[in-house]
Amino acid sequence: MSSNGGDDERTDESTASGRQSRINRRNVLRSGAVVGGAALAGCLSGSGGGDSDDDGDGGNGSDGGNGGGTTNVAIVSSSAGFDDQAFNTLAVEGLEAAAEDYDMSIQEVEETSPSNYETTQADLASSSNPNYDLIVLVGYEHSPGLQTNAAEYSDQNWMLINDHVDQPNVAGRIWANHEMSYLAGVAAGTMTTRDFSFASSSTQSGSAHIGFVGGVDGPLINAFEDAYVAGAEWVNSDVEVSVGYVGNYQDTQTATNIASSQYDDGADIVYQAAAAAGEGVFPAAQSANRFAIGVDADQSVTLSEYQDVIMGSAVKFINEGTRSVASAVAEGNFDSVAGRQVLGLEEEAVEFVPGQTVGEELPDDVASNVDEATQAIVDGEITVPCSASGCN
After folding, report:
1. CA distance 176 to 161
2. What is the tens place of the pLDDT at every residue in 285-310?
3. Structural domain boundaries enclosing 278
4. What is the CATH number of the domain that holds 105?
5. The whole model's pTM is what?
6. Of 391, 320, 392, 305, whose CA–CA distance to 351 is shortest?
């Protein structure tokens, strides 16, 4: 177990290399972040010189990017909607990056009611104008509908984010939410016993108390919670963690109310895992003169109006996932990306990113403890609670 202190120099070349890699990936995420105001529906297109010489199919009969036609991609939001400045935003960002390299048209379908997902999926899969080469589904809430539609529309290529359906025409990508949340807990556990101030906010060293605000109280978000608590306890076994759930992924006011209550009870830092609803945690932090930790994207960038209180974010590179799958489809090579893939710390697909402004002022112990925990998880010395799929 790490202590709160420790400024040990790390001269190991592999450690330095790993840290540099994480920094580089963080910069890619920040420089490519999509901010608010993107169209929530309609057709976007991009073109480039990325046509492949591969003669394979584009998946469902379309030529895709194989030297003749436009690759048509549809993406259906989670219940949080595209403007969550988190994983929906990142998923679209990755498709837009692919569209810079290929002749690709992107149709965004915002559907926030899970009861409509099966029908929405079927409508897109049966479309002939256009005929979609790939349909991207954001979030595990799409899984029940896809269980039916992946088999019914067996010639349709699908990508499912944060879950998988065992069909040959599905690319399931599951990011290790539990691993990045553990690191968020390490950061919060390190800072809650420090006297630290930035702008108008501060922590109190007299107590070890942090908070967590989740979206839906179920197996997936329970993994965020359990791993966050475990990470904080790895630093300080006496830490107190207040926990609350919004009940959905849209209600920012309820998230604000929960976080405000946690701050009032003495929490220094609150980590949110509630998609669009979680944005409500940040104004609560500002009002309480405390700090918060964002999720999925570097939210000190995507929600820059709150960067004075966002100590850091637990991020996952969903944008790289959607880009790679869409690119493979454009090259007529969906088979290379089909199947279930879990992406975590070992793959450098998730990490804890210090905030744009607050992060520069954090004590060195935060980076030291996060780096130590990261390596221990990769080496199997730390077993993170739950799994990438959730707590079962």
Report:
1. 12
2. 999 999 999 999 999 999 999 999 99
3. 177-316+362-378
4. 3.40.50.2300
5. 0.80
6. 320
